[in-house]
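Discussion board: Methods & Data

I've been asked by a reviewer to show the raw model output for two of the constructs in my manuscript, not just the figures. I'm not sure how much to include, so I'm pasting the format here to get opinions. Each protein appears as its amino acid sequence followed by a line of discrete structure tokens. Is this the kind of thing reviewers expect to see in a supplement, or should I convert it first? Here is construct A:
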Amino acid sequence: MKRIIFSLLYDNEYFILSRNFKRQKIGDLNWLLKNYDLPKVSLGLDELIIINVSKNKDINKFSKVIEIISQKVLIPVVGGGGVKSIEDAHTLLKAGADKILLNSLFNNDPEKCLEIANYFGKQFIVACLDYKIVDEIIYVYKNDAMQKCAEKFSSIIRIIEKFGAGEIIFQSIDRDGTGNGMDVKIIEVLNRLNLNLPVILKGGIGQKKHAFEVLRNTNINAICTSNILNFIGETFIDMRKYLISENINLASWSQNDINILRNKFNNNIDL
């Protein structure tokens, strides 16, 4: 089953837009809750990822954000950014996250990733790999894409496979926030590597057809976008309908299913 995922980027109490990892503040949590009907938007999604990209990461403050948003959506929530220990992971899971996202830790301390995975289970761990292609060579970056990794692309993937990830996001730094289409060339590279993990591509979605171009590939399990300006109304509901009409294997719900779900949700949570 394919998936549509959205990621919210959180930076020191604000949610941001990102383009090639250059950031622009949009609004705080109150702004997000006021301007977006999160239960409705989530009906078009399969998962929501909330990433703490703050320079100085406060896991306890971030967990409060996870807690509030997870109560407002109808889908699994992934929390990440600054997780360095079992205790950090437990803090986010206790706050309402269903999975934990790990990025630089796979490069900085893969043994710690394995320790977290062994404690919670690999199915709870989502790896994120930020990459850039220069002269046909793929380079991986860590620490909020500020530092180029010395290891080869394929070597880092094998580390992620070995040290505890249940799935992996490949995030294109060059495509990030552009809306010009996803990096389809990376798919050929990933096919040759024969990954043993579900693959998610992130970066570049601006139109429904961009999602289709990627999801029609057998070895791509999901797409992820973080353009908060698209995180509104029925954008993702419409995308889901379009992809299903193009025979992409996505979960679908009847209007009756949606009404039952929303009624149950509204009866249990004060919106």
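Construct B, same format:
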Amino acid sequence: MTGSAVRVQGLVKSFGPPRRGAPATPVLRSVDLDVPSGSLIAVLGPSGCGKTTLLRLVAGFERADAGTVEVGDRLVEGPGVHVAPERRRVGVVPQEQALFPHLSVAANIGYGLPAAQRRAGRRVAELLELAELGGLGERMPHELSGGQQQRVAVARALAPAPSVVLLDEPFGGLDAALRIAIRHHVRAMLAATGATALLVTHDQEEALSVADRVAVMRAGEVVQEGTPAEVYGRPVDLGVATFVGEANLLPGRASDGFVDTAIGRLPVAIARERCDGEVTAVVRPEQVHVRPVENGTAIIEDRLFFGHDAMLRVRLGDGTALQARVTRRATMSPGERVEVSGEGPVVCFPQGASLGSDP
């Protein structure tokens, strides 16, 4: 992957006219983001953090108050510049597929193509096969399943070979099992065409499992950007740590690259000067090990079974509550006495550090 398909710098956006001297509501606060060509970047954050507004500014559906947006090497948004959405070479897959109900599947896919390409049908046929919809081109959208409709929407966005495809919570309307299958199918479609994509989602599992890089947004700002492993394993603050996956926050005392906690002495992942003295350690549930012991000092309070694994809620002797992820074969149940230990490395923050207002 070389170069940037999309570059956002200093993007600012507010909504609502000032009332009685009060300022408009800020939604984006100087957002910077690079989307390398050929990559899939997930913008992850809770409702109201500004992620959909960011997508709409890249698409050209909104005008920025300040900052710039470049698509490829072309400035499409900036001081005195606002290129219309249809001239940005950007494909959009909205939350609802927004397929044309009166057009066939093939006609939906070919809608954005020049007339000559639509008549030739070659590009549409290629995308039907890529979406595993060969032979279904003459069907109407209502004759397809939800997952098939989603693949049609992605194929339609890919048809004119855009510089970037923007996906706004595209899997939210699908049931859990189908959502997992479809998002990986869509990822494969994007990879097969070499497309660049920007995915907006509030689903941490979705972002971590399909994206090359993840940008975490909070209160209109990108607070961390990195690979899924970096964002999950090296969160920049407690807000990111608790939003991106489950986290146990344990008080401890750190020194010399280790932290002493209620579940043992654990190595610290990052050598930071702020990780000395009284700290809060971030311990993921899979780093908490539980074993049955007749006279154990901890007790299992609850067990949530997810099929592939289970989550235990464990209460330590000092009253500390922890979550521990165990395999589906683990037979421990509520009321059982256990011993608990931890596995590093862990990330630490100064005791009393804020979780952030959002997430």
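Answer (T.O., handling editor elsewhere):
This is acceptable in a supplement if you add a one-line summary per construct. For B, something like: The chain has two domains: 4-233, 247-350.
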